[in-house]
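Priority: medium. Attachment 1 of 2:
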């Protein structure tokens, strides 16, 4: 919607309404919401990206009840994770939830998040500038188990030009991987995991024992994609390690695909 208005002016809204095309809106202000409400049908809006700073929160919750057809929601810099349940009330058809941060974050902040995620969510995404290592703690994700319906999880740390996954202060290479997998083990119905990360962090992802744990715990897991940003020279040791992980996971379950791609 934003791009369409910028390209064609608000005159395009008439044609959008007439054609009943589905609409995606990014970080609107109250005046923008008012304009949209007058010129297109609320049920046409199926995807929203909202900035969640305190100044906008009151405006956001004033307009949300009108958009009960939204199926995809992106929340920018959401620090009060309990607010997720409020969005779930307003959007009963929500199937995709994306949390986007323009700074580095510690994955442990999500340890209590699952109690607020609506049962309708099938696709869950976290986008951030990198993972701050708060050091792995086997109790940090010790929450009450719930049979979540999330099928697809994307962890994207490649969208911003900052250093990602800073070194663990206790120098454990696999600390980031352990924390990530502990976050995932509560998505017991997960089918696909997609991780986007900086090329310098590849070694942090190659502990075979943690991948085997994930495969055993998430019995429906079908595909793991590790997307590495930046070209790398051919590395025989890395190639052999990737092949070893692929083979070990297939021994657990033939249907699992483990793939690393460089972009």
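Attachment 2 of 2:
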């Amino acid at each position: 919607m934003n791009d369409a208005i910028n390209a064609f002016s608000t005159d395009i809204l008439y044609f959008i309404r007439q054609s009943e095309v589905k609409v995606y809106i990014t970080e609107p202000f109250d005046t923008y919401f008012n304009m949209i409400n007058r010129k297109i049908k609320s049920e046409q809006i199926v995807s929203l990206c909202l900035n969640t700073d305190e100044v906008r929160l009151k405006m956001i919750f004033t307009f949300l009840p009108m958009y009960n057809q939204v199926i995809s929601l992106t929340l920018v810099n959401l620090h009060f994770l309990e607010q997720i349940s409020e969005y779930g009330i307003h959007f009963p058809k929500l199937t995709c939830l994306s949390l986007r941060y323009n700074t580095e974050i510690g994955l442990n902040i999500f340890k209590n998040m699952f109690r607020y995620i609506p049962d309708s969510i099938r696709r869950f995404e976290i986008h951030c500038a990198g993972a701050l290592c708060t050091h792995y703690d086997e109790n940090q994700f010790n929450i009450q188990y719930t049979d979540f319906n999330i099928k697809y999880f994307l962890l994207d740390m490649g969208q911003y030009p900052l250093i990602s996954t800073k070194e663990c202060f206790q120098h454990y290479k696999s600390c980031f991987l352990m924390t990530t997998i502990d976050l995932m083990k509560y998505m017991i119905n997960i089918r696909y995991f997609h991780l986007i990360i900086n090329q310098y962090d590849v070694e942090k992802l190659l502990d075979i024992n943690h991948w085997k744990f994930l495969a055993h715990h998430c019995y429906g897991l079908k595909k793991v994609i590790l997307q590495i940003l930046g070209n790398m020279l051919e590395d025989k040791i890395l190639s052999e390690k990737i092949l070893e992980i692929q083979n070990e996971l297939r021994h657990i379950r033939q249907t699992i695909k483990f793939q690393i791609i460089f972009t």
